[in-house]
Amino acid sequence: MTAPALTADTDRLVITGARIPSGDALSVLLGGRRIWTVRAPRPDDDGVLSVPWPPALAERFTGSARLAVEHAGREIAASTVVFEDDASDFDLSEPGTGIPLVVNKWGRIARSFEGRDAALVEHVLDEAEHLIEVLRRTVGVELFVTGGTLLGPVRNGRIMAHDDDADLAYLSAHPNPSDVMLESFRIERVLVDQGYEVVRHSNGHLQLMFPGGTVTDRFYLDIFTYFECNGWFYGTFHARERADRVTIHPLKPLPVNGRLLPGPAEPAQLLAAIYGPSWEVPDPTFTFVTPPAAFRRYYWWLNHFDVDRENWEDHHRAEIEAGPATTPSRLAVTTAEQLPPSSTVLDLGCGLGADARYLADRGHRVLAVDFSRPALVWAQENFGHDGAVLFERANLTMARSALHLRKRCADLGGTVHVYANHLFNALSPLGWDTTLMLIKHLLAEPGSRAFLEVGVADTEGSASWSEYQPVDWTRFQEQLRRYSLSAEEQDDDGAGAATGRRVLVRREMT
Question: Where is each Methyltransferase domain found (predicted)?
């Protein structure tokens, strides 16, 4: 009998000659270290298993790597795989720190507690305890452990080794989603005042970041909003269960790594609502499948303001690790030629900041914004040295962020021109509306213009996420007209017209 064989490229992992039941767990090892666990797909007619890589992992592959696959705790195949024809060895580790990384349950590249210094887990729990006390003291909100931070301790009293954060939640006192949302924003303001770095995923999900270097985070804490409405329990972002089947209060102490943290009154009920009835059985391949009825309510009640932010941050970290390009785009070059001397420019979606720096070097003042935190940190360190470029975080899917940018531009004084390179390829529909409304208001100033480039080719996009897509040119023009904007194409030289279109946008005066 021929031994199983393993091959791979940047798209997929292929196993031949192995009889593995569909749905069984497969562990992928890099240099003897587990980096990903996935369920075996159904084999083809020849018995070949073809497993697509998680997109966030696929875009990182370079050089060669020693890969192995385990099934039922036994190695079934191994091989040295060449992804690119160079001498480097692929190493899945964090830029700047060398900390080993894995593919987490979201398909993202992340740290895990497995194999890490035990002091890190203790630091996470220290911060969790401090946060619990802060919100109890300042706003009277009682946090308790949930999600993976509840699951591991209920099983064996300890945080799960393959986890990478701590999950906390509170049960809102409000039955109306609007009041639930207002309560969450009040909590966010308090946390910011307390010095926390807060990222808002939705109107019911906050994430507190604890940076660990220039482009890395040591860990983060999640705060989920739970609430009851019309007889149903909702556990952001996923759970929806009859309220009489999930008992949260009174909270009771739960042993977690030798210390006591607040837990729900009936942990098993909450875990069943989150993970399903088989929550007691460990499943390293677990992924959330949100019921449609729950998804509809969470989206329309609490929305989602963090579309692809983590994917962009992974992408920028990979770019930084590989050595980012510092040459300007063609849009930056043509924009610099058309701007009046000493202009003020708002660069929307600045990424690593090369275009913003190019415009500043030509005598313009630039406010450059993005929602990718590592990109902004790197850009500030490398391009923000003289104050000609101001780098700030902004989330263009949130109306309040757009309003803040309007105020920032007003504070800068005078005419503000808008610059956006392929931004509309990355924005969600909500982001389109918020951004076009912002541009409309900024272009009300006489003489102001928006310099945009949009990718229109079928190949436009990224392997890492689905939202970075070609722009339908007809739809784009229709959306501009909705906001009293008109576009003049600038591709008169024909360069790149097959893949992208440079446009000069003006506001139509009525």
Answer: 345-396
